[in-house]
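Problem: given the chain below (284 residues), write out its structure.
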Amino acid sequence: MIPLAGVLDPIERPLTAILEWFHSAIGLPWAWAIIALTIVVRIVLVPLTVKQIRSMQHLQQHAPELKAIQQRYKNNKQKMNEEVMKFYRENKINPAASCLPILVQIPIFIALYYVLRDFEDEVFPEYQAMGETVADLGWLHIVPSITDNITSHWSGWLLVAIYVVSQLASIISMPTTDPRQRWIFLALPFVFVIFIANTTFPVGLLLYWVTTNLWTVGQGLVTRRMFPKPEPPPKRSSRTPPKEREPATAASDGGGVEKAVQPSRASGQQRVRRRKKKGPRSRR
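Solution.
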């Protein structure tokens, strides 16, 4: 066994137990058990996903201010990083919160890989003794076995195509503040296709990934209604008119009696009028 598999053993055993429970207790085929397992994992991650969405929306709300800081200190990387971190602290922004669901899914994904890799040797013999055959590891009469490599059958490449489409759809549905980051994410599925074509990648693992991508797309449609995009803070400019002040019409003295206060402009106008009346006397 690879040392990493031993580290992930606490995750492998619950995944195997859940798969066997869906298959033996509920009667789902093994491929549908993987789909049900994926749904269970995504339901457990819902609190982290909600935190991720709120964090990304909060970051989008302050994106113009953050961009202004980056432009101001673009020639001084150290100062820019200091000001950005200070900006995060003052506005209570946690940029790592947007990565929490992905970070949690990575060890689950790797652990499921080891479960499927050793499935026919460690899990399936018990069910073969009860009369099951290798055909029971298939899916919809298309996939010959969930433990087969995707390159061993044309149906594996069909799942690869579905994976690429679902991955692109999930990336488009995810909010992001950096267009360059979005383009990198859009290119990753095609890089991954090259990787899995040259490695031993079981069909069941790709089935898990396709299901989680479809869940992400549906989740994005739901969360857009539940968590609408927040409005950015108002921008002040030189053309913004100042607030009108209410004219002081009355003032109260110490005894609480209100006295009328005449504007100084009015008194000034009266003085001007009085001066105009005092003109030079005409001579007879």
